[in-house]
Amino acid sequence: MNTTFIPSHKLNQWMRDIRRTLHQYPELGFEEFQTAQLITEKLDELSIPYRTNIAKTGLLANIGSEDGVGTIALRADLDALPIIEKTGLPFASKRPGLMHACGHDGHVAMLLGAAALLQDKKLPGRVVFLFQPAEEGEGGAKEMITAGALEGVDAIFAGHIDRHYQVGEIGVEAGLICAYTDTFRITIRGKGGHAAKPHETVDCLVTASLLVMSIQTLVSREINPAYPTVVTVGRLQGGRAANVIADTALLEGTIRSTHPEIRKKVIKGLTRMVGAMEELYNAKTTIELTEGYPPVINDPTATAIAKAAATMVVGNKGVASLPHPSLGGEDFSFYLNKIPGCLVRFGGKRMDMQGEPAHSPRFDFDEGVLAVGASFLAQVALTALERINELKDLLPRSEPT
Ligand code: NI
Q1: What is the value of pTM for the model shown?
Q2: What's the 128 CA to ligand 1 centre distance in angstroms?
């Protein structure tokens, strides 16, 4: 390790305790009141000044001087998920139906750890710590920006715990690493009636079934296979009784794409297929599309800086590339649409587990990742301040269309 930011045994324990406390008391997006309270207590322990109630439950803390070379932001997300935990961990969720199943408890702990590592260092500029609510679908990042979190910030960095990599590995890649996420809601209206008299009805369940199957050909037959794309119907609802033909059906799902043209093409194709059901089966249809997160596109300069910092923390061997984008979404993209930055992946695979994915009720990670994450975040802030001129050259940014 070439970094000076190596957490002590005591700091590692401090981070682990924070993670475990948060894990026991998960909170959903924009409801992270207790989480925010714990963060203020920890920042008080470190004598780091902060502001609360940013975007409702978010916090902004900062160290270093405003009159220095520039400002670097580091971000952690705070929210948990509506999942019933089945890990059996001694520090499992004490709130039935809520769980930290994406590692955000770890993200908070490591960002506080980074603050502890940076706090007594002489910094050439300022480091802002963004504790952001509501990453899981509600776009807390957008609210943080509206609340002024990026004011005076030159670049932003963060990491996400990833079970595909081992502790001691950091995945760093320039360009698009997370997908466009759009959701759709399709309503099919037929004509209800007696199950024994289908000729008097328009059976919307038959229409819905055919539509689900037709949608499968969108990606496989209409989209260039060189561009990763997914269309998933995650909810199909209709009918109430065995002897009744249902008069409405509901389909909900998500579109994940990695190119703006492909995204447009999928939406157009889906709309066409839904409309065709009217002609084909006499049903009435409506489709509502909701734009989700934009894709995360890591800036090449910020990525080079992240790679240099990662190399200092885990060595050349520990720096992994991301061979293909994740089709998951991440609202870190909202920051990257405003200023340069880079989102990395922190290896957190638990070697004794058969890879339970994030958002699974059995998800857990190796807490060794906390030390690596804290080290990296502290190091990347310093390296970015030292190389601030490269980043300042990239500003101002115009928002992509
Ligand atoms: Ni997450």
Answers
A1: 0.89
A2: 21
